[in-house]
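Is this the right way to post structure tokens for a design question? Let me know if I should format differently. Anyway, here goes:
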């Protein structure tokens, strides 16, 4: 029983926390990369006004501005 408790204390529990931290960091890295790509694509569409995205985003920005201010 003592060996099992030592195994839990020194190997299993720290490994669980390391795995959880790694999973969270990988998830946030993936979200950051996707968000950067989405913002870049929207910026290109906005500045070249492709498919009327400029008026659409202006309406969204105006709505958000009215909602917060």
């Amino acid at each position: 029983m003592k060996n099992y408790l030592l195994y839990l204390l020194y190997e299993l529990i720290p490994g669980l926390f390391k795995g959880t931290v790694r999973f969270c960091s990988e998830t946030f890295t993936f979200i950051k990369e996707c968000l950067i790509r989405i913002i870049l694509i929207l910026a290109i569409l906005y500045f070249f006004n492709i498919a009327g995205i400029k008026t659409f985003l202006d309406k969204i920005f105006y709505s958000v501005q009215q909602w917060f201010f």
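Format looks fine. Someone answered above. Worth noting: Helices lie at 2-48, 53-68. The mean pLDDT is 87.
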